[in-house]
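Predict structure. Chain length: 162.
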Amino acid sequence: MKTIKLLSIASLMFLGLMSFTTVAESSKYKCMIQMTNYTGEGAYIVISLMNPEGEYEETLNVIGDDEEWYNTIESWWDFYGKRRPDIDAITGATVSGGERTINVIEIDDDKLDKGYKLRFESAVEDQEYYEKDVEIELTSANVKSKVEGNGFIRYIRMMPQK
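Prediction complete.
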């Protein structure tokens, strides 16, 4: 009888604690990147979530799968290179001048309209590096918008994935 009471009390305590635990909901967004008509090698592009203090929070996507060139994305490399978390599931081939690529990124819903930003950094071998090729406030409106780039990226277009 005591065992049943103890199990019942433990179950109620567990359920009570679980009611205070929240699971972060996230949404997926299609992100089309249109490149400028530059000549040369394919671009490496990193899409990062930046916190309200302007620090790296998370790597959302890496375009370019040869780790030898990751250090050319200098600011991101300072963040990623120290820890080197597994990014295999979010990498893909480089994209060249005039081409476009469509990627799906996942963002926690609680980051919207809270001062977070998306940063798109780009670099091309033997050419420039653009730390903020595109940087946009992570707002409900901006995840459905088109934003012009400052370097190798002509523009990005975001759209919620249904």
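Summary: The first helix runs from residue 2 to 20.
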